[in-house]
Amino acid sequence: MERPRLYSYVRFSSERQSKGTSIERQKSNIDNMVKKIAQEHDLEIFEEYQDLGVSAFKGKNATEGALADFIQHVETGKIPFGSYLLIESLDRFSRANPMVAVNMFTSLLLKGIVVITGIDNQIYRETKVNNDTLQQLMYSVMLFSRANDESETKSHRTIASALNKIKRHKARQLGDPVVAIKELGMDKWWTDSSSGFVKPHPVYYPIAQKMIELKQRGYSNRLILAYLKENHPAPTEGRSRGKWNIQHASRIIEPAIYGQKVINVNGESYTLDDYYPAIVTKDEYERLKFQIGNKSFAPLKEANPEIPLLSGIGILYCKH
Fold first, then answer.
1. Mean pLDDT, rounded, for 245-250
2. What's the predicted TM-score (pTM) here?
């Protein structure tokens, strides 16, 4: 007879946490708990699901993250009835509206999933209703409600802080240091805001400049990607996590390269000029956009004897 499977779930909500101790702490705790729970309940250790940099406040992890994958795998039968899910605490599962969170949580229980929270050693499963199960369900509602309240408070503070920085940016004098606004999204990979101010990244800003130069010379996204992979280490922050991909080349042409940042707060859009260190002027950006969008202009897709080959930061010419 097969032993029940034990799955685990880890989530942290921000890029800052990914660089800090949140993921390491959770993973260390979960790894230790997995071994302990598997031994206590005679379970077979299976897959770990991770939502890295995904918020549970609006339930995003349950609609498009790894938790969504877990729920889908339960619904399709890939994860069998009677399997166990280990999470550090219920707020890792959801910080959404308590009614939404409880509905999502209990639907898993009704599909035969046993949920264990490591921080308080609670075991949740579908069972006959009695005083103990009612108390446990009320306890879970209280935890979901508290997690949602905490996130609501944090969200209000985050928005207030961002709006204050937006106001300060619009009032700043040209040439004043640019205060980084990290509350509502990351800055561009070719900038450095570790000091609290937005500056050109000492390594990646020159690479972005070279990419723009190659775009101006007519190089395709594929050739630019090949150049990046051959010559430069990829940024370690952000979703690419140390790997160049085609989006680095295809998405480099955007208003950010002439300094503009757009922030959306509660449905309202704020345009901040001179936020990023400019790589080109606005006129150069418009010309480059026109060049790329001009159907009569064919980008270079591969090197040939008449086309400069990329090598290092410079350009070599191949002649026969």
1. 93
2. 0.57
